[in-house]
């Protein structure tokens, strides 16, 4: 119930008329009114403050209300909030692109500024297809990827999400069929198992003349199961893409800017992709923006294609306000405090979540960088658990059979303990289903 001292939220209108992510309009999950946020806390309309364990879907790595980002955005807002990018340029876009080129690998030298993560993936896939047209190999029209992946909700992005257990199976043949191989099973930190690579080798050997690119989430499969896999898989994937003349796209939208303990997750394997998609933490979560970077070679192939230009151009491409927010966020990243912050979070997660491995309801505990995961044996009741977490003073959004946190890098040890304690409390309250739990740490 709302506190009269705080702004009223019209829950009835919200429930009757407004879609929320992955919800029904007739059987909607409960919503909680937020009226403010600062640091690592959300302020509810009841007056309660809850610690955000999700960084607003993994984006707000610097926390809320950061004065430096707000100052840069306010200055840009008063100067130039938006202008079309067709035939016009501006310094925020130039500065952001310079920084992205400098902080990623040498191979990536061209930047496309997109609206969102899904669009960055769409752009990368279109770039791959158009590149091969410019290389006089128009038969290369397929994308290869691994099962249990997730790359977004737009149509091309849906086509490379898990085809069986993913969120988009109901769209059937409206989604372009792509090529899939089993997801890597070798845990992070372990040498690659031979059986992990056999299907990938076979698929590339048999279909490379039709494959334009491989796309993969490096190290972490997020929505597909919060799984961490061996960096050796990426090393072998890069080698095979070179061998069979196929482009490699890494989707760093969830993992980029320090989340796994490296600035970008592909650095765990010491490889260079041909294209990379970034988003979420790019602006620190303050406004929507994403980017796709590609190599000179890819850009040249696109320029040599029949159209002579890359065929994509969103209305809000290169939005100055978003670019200014991203530059401010990357300024904070450049201070290089995040490695220490993420290492401290990882250590604390290891220490505090390990006990949950003894709970019969927990199948596995996984930790890497600023990511902590409890994999449960059974699918959880998101609505019921959400209320339990609110009652415990935290915002944790479970899904399927995963209770996980990806907190802001600025979180205090006290706040983090409150999150991990809530995770263990809720997990322990669930029905026992097994007595052979497993703790997996990657620190």
From TrEMBL:
InterPro entries: Aminotrans_3, Aminotrans_3_PPA_site, BioA, PyrdxlP-dep_Trfase, PyrdxlP-dep_Trfase_major, PyrdxlP-dep_Trfase_small
GO biological process, one term: biotin biosynthetic process
Modified residues (N6-(pyridoxal phosphate)lysine): 280
SUPFAM superfamilies in UniProt: PLP-dependent transferases
Species this chain originates from: Shewanella gelidii
Site (Participates in the substrate recognition with KAPA and in a stacking interaction with the adenine ring of SAM): 22
GO-annotated molecular function: adenosylmethionine-8-amino-7-oxononanoate transaminase activity; pyridoxal phosphate binding
Keyword Transferase annotated: yes
Assembly notes: Homodimer.
Record-listed pyridoxal 5'-phosphate binding positions: 117-118, 251, 314-315
Keyword Lipid metabolism: no
Function in brief: Catalyzes the transfer of the alpha-amino group from S-adenosyl-L-methionine (SAM) to 7-keto-8-aminopelargonic acid (KAPA) to form 7,8-diaminopelargonic acid (DAPA). It is the only aminotransferase known to utilize SAM as an amino donor.
Family: Belongs to the class-III pyridoxal-phosphate-dependent aminotransferase family. BioA subfamily.
Pathway participation: Cofactor biosynthesis; biotin biosynthesis; 7,8-diaminononanoate from 8-amino-7-oxononanoate (SAM route): step 1/1
Annotated compartments: Cytoplasm
Coiled coil ranges: none
Protein's name in the database: Adenosylmethionine-8-amino-7-oxononanoate aminotransferase
One protein family per Pfam: Aminotran_3
């Amino acid at each position: 119930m709302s506190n009269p001292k705080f702004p009223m939220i019209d829950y009835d209108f919200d429930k009757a008329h407004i879609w929320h992510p992955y919800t029904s309009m007739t059987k909607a999950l409960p919503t909680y009114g937020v009226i403010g946020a600062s640091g690592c806390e959300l302020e509810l309309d009841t007056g309660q403050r809850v610690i955000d364990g999700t960084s607003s879907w993994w984006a707000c790595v610097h926390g809320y209300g950061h004065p430096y980002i707000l100052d840069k955005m306010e200055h840009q807002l008063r100067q130039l909030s938006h202008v079309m990018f067709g035939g016009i340029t501006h310094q925020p876009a130039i500065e952001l692109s310079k920084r992205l080129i400098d902080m990623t690998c040498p191979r990536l030298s061209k930047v496309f500024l997109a609206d969102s993560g899904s669009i960055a993936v769409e752009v990368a896939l279109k770039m791959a297809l158009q590149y091969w047209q410019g290389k006089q190999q128009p038969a290369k029209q397929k994308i290869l990827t691994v099962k249990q992946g997730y790359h977004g909700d737009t149509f091309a992005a849906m086509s490379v999400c898990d085809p069986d257990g993913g969120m988009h199976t109901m769209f059937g043949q409206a989604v372009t069929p792509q090529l899939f191989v089993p997801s890597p099973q070798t845990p992070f930190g372990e040498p690659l198992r031979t059986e992990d690579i056999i299907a990938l080798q076979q698929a590339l050997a048999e279909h490379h003349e039709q494959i334009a690119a491989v796309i993969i989430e490096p190290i972490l499969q997020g929505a597909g199961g919060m799984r961490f896999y061996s960096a050796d898989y990426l090393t072998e994937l890069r080698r095979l893409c070179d061998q069979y003349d196929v482009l490699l796209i890494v989707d760093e939208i969830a993992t980029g800017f320090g989340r796994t303990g490296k600035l970008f997750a592909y650095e765990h394997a010491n490889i260079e992709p041909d294209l990379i998609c970034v988003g979420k933490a790019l602006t620190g979560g303050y406004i929507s923006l994403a980017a796709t970077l590609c190599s000179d070679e890819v850009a040249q192939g696109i320029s040599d294609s029949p159209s002579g230009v890359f065929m994509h151009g969103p209305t809000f491409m290169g939005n100055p306000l978003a670019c200014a927010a991203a530059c401010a966020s990357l300024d904070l990243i450049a201070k290089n405090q995040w490695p220490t912050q993420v290492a401290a979070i990882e250590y604390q997660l290891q220490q505090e979540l390990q006990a949950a491995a003894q709970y019969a309801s927990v199948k596995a505990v996984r930790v890497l960088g600023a990511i902590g995961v409890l994999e449960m044996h059974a699918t959880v009741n998101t609505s019921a658990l959400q209320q339990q977490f609110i009652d415990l003073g935290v915002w944790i959004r479970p899904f399927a059979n995963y209770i996980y946190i990806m907190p802001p890098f600025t979180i205090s040890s006290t706040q983090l303990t409150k999150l991990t304690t809530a995770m263990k409390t809720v997990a322990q309250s669930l029905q026992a289903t097994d007595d052979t739990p497993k703790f997996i740490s990657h620190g």
